[in-house]
Amino acid sequence: MSAELLNKAREGDRDAFSQLVEAHYDFIHAIAWRWCGVAGDAEDIAQEACIRMARAIRDFKGQSGLKTWLYTLTLNVVRDHQRQMARRRRDENRLASDPVFLAERETPDGAAEEWLWAAVRTLPDKQRDAVLLVHAEGLNHAAAADVLGCSEKTISWHLHDARKRLKDLLKREAV
Question: What pTM was estimated for this model as a whole?
Fold first, then answer.
């Protein structure tokens, strides 16, 4: 890899950056694959690493080798992905054991499901939107946050509040 190509990419030359990505994509993908072991995830991680590389290439000072820098950048993406997957599994496990959402699966005629979605539509706007995006549309917290223009933590908070309200409604309905 020529220093000239790297310098052009750092200065914003798109063609040079494209050549840089092409030259190193297999390396980035191989790191992602070794660390996560899932083909689809490795592809997502490699693509995200390239996006981050585009954002950070101007700050690359050359104090370490380019491959060392790419390795570090890719591992950071892998770690972020692993944290996101752990949060998703935790949320799915919590949801699977949540009595409000379990009720949805308990009646064969769908009455509980109808009641649940009707109750969701009565929630305050932000809570309703978070529940619908995550549980009805299947978006992860990051994607829902992008849609609503807020942080993932805000989505989690809205979902937490929505669960509390729905549990209260379920208790009142049972009485």
Answer: 0.56
